Amino acid sequence: MLSLASVSAGYGSFQALFGVSLEISRGEAVGVIGPNGAGKTTLMRVISGMLSMTHGTMTLEGQAIGGLPAHHIIEHGIAHVPENRRLFPRLSVEENLRVGAFIPAARARFAEQLDYVYGMFPRLKDRRTQAAGTMSGGEQQMCAIGRALMSKPKVLLMDEPSAGLAPLVVQQVFDLVARIREQGLTVLIVEQNVQQVLDVVDRAYLLEVGAIRLSGTATELKGNSFIRESYLGL
Amino acid sequence: MDIYLLEAIINGILLGGVLALLALGLNLIFGVIDVVWISYADIVMCGMYGVYFLYAQYNVPLPLACLIAIFGAACLGILVHKLIIAPVLGAPPLNQLLATGGLLFFLQSFATLLFGTDFRNIGVRLPVLEVATMYVSFARLIAFGVALVGAVALYFFLKKTYLGTAIRAIAQDREIVGLMGIDQRRLYLVVSAIGGALAGLAACLLALQYDVHPFIGNTFGPVIFIICVLGGLGNMLGGFFASFIISLIIAIGGYYSSTELSYVLAFSFFIVLMFIRPRGLFTP
């Protein structure tokens, strides 16, 4: 469904990605794991159009979408839950969700999609008029995911959804990811929390210094001796 | 209470309404684009000339002349953004200040060249109302009412529409809004047009009360600017309330001394408050 072929990108003279290729099929949940500074966030930014690639191609359902700016990528059905949530802190929860439905196609089905998001996160409905910045980290993460779902995306990108959350809340966030993928959504998730992410994805890629080092099904990677030693601490 | 003092207070509040409109426009532009339009009051001057020429010279009916002036000011706002602001968006704040400051001198000199330094009046004589032995100018009353309607309309636009919510969102995180399908550059143009239109509306209301000349912007520009800083730059509600504080100081000060001294008073109040609350009166 979404495929990247030898994508390179960077910031000015600093190159962060070196010919990354990856493939996600419809309805699949795929993880990208790796250490800090491996280029995971850069990869997400390239896919959502926040950062333009210097080389390579990207296609969604066979259509080339590489090089489009972020505000066009979302219209093709890729929504991005950014690192650190990045809610609009002084807007209410519902206003944050309304911004998530900014594109014309999403405005047309706003009420329906709002029901869907509130159905998935009843907590957000309770707090709909509260300023988003005053909620707890876990609630903010729900709101950030909800905001991305408002556009009814085909592919959901999640950048470190568990970052900065208490351990108990981290487990809740991964339960959420599991629920989202049960709905048939295609998910690409970047995480440092290797153990937990491998429990919810079908496949994963290991990104190190801007290149894919390993890939395989979640079960394969859990059994891989390199992953076990370096990332799972087993 | 002294009846003349009450009259001064009422006139102060009425003037505050129009100043509030300008403070809203300047704050909107600053909050979203992060650039201070030093020349904002000179957009008002252009709008006033627009109303004057359309109505007094070319006999266009006043409401239509006002609509055209508002539309023209909105276009001027877009033009200012495209020609002057957009090229210096990434530049240091000082350069941005110099660019919009340069526009101020350009507009004033250009107006002098085209129209001379004559004071021109659109020649609409509205009655002065006598309410319980107080005199209230009908022109000011209309200006206040229309300004308030404009402010409320802006509030509902920002609060209730997708575009308005997006404008408030971009003021809080300009990098991330692209992910929601918002084109930052397009939104900047929309905001510049709204800012220009608010200046145009204020121009119509001020043309009813004041003569237009190339330097009329200097009468309001510094006052609007201190209002915005007093309310907290970018804080729309703060600027709205600060408008009334400053206009009341000017009106009441004018009652006890003279108009000139009342401006000294207002600016002294501002300077003292900047020591006490440097980030603005309404910033927590």
Q: What string, H for helix and E for strand, traces the elements of chain A in order?
A: EEEHEEHEHHHHHEHEHEEHH
| Number of strand segments of chain B | 2
What's the domain count of chain B?
Answer: 1
Tally of contiguous helical segments of chain B = 10
CATH top level assignment of the largest domain in chain A: Alpha Beta
Polypeptide structure, described:
The complex is a heterodimer of chains A (234) and B (284). Chain A is α/β, with parallel strands linked by helices. Chain A has 11 helices and 10 strands. Chain A folds into 2 domains: 156 residues, 3-Layer(aba) Sandwich (Rossmann fold), CATH 3.40.50.300; 73 residues, no CATH class. In chain A, strand 1 and strand 2 form a beta hairpin. The mean pLDDT of chain A is 92. Chain B has a single domain, classed as ABC transporter involved in vitamin B12 uptake, BtuC (Orthogonal Bundle). The mean pLDDT of chain B is 92. Chain B is an all-alpha fold. The interface between A and B is medium-sized, with 29 and 17 residues.
What does this entry show, briefly?
The complex is a heterodimer of chains A (234) and B (284). Chain A is α/β, with parallel strands linked by helices and 234 residues long.
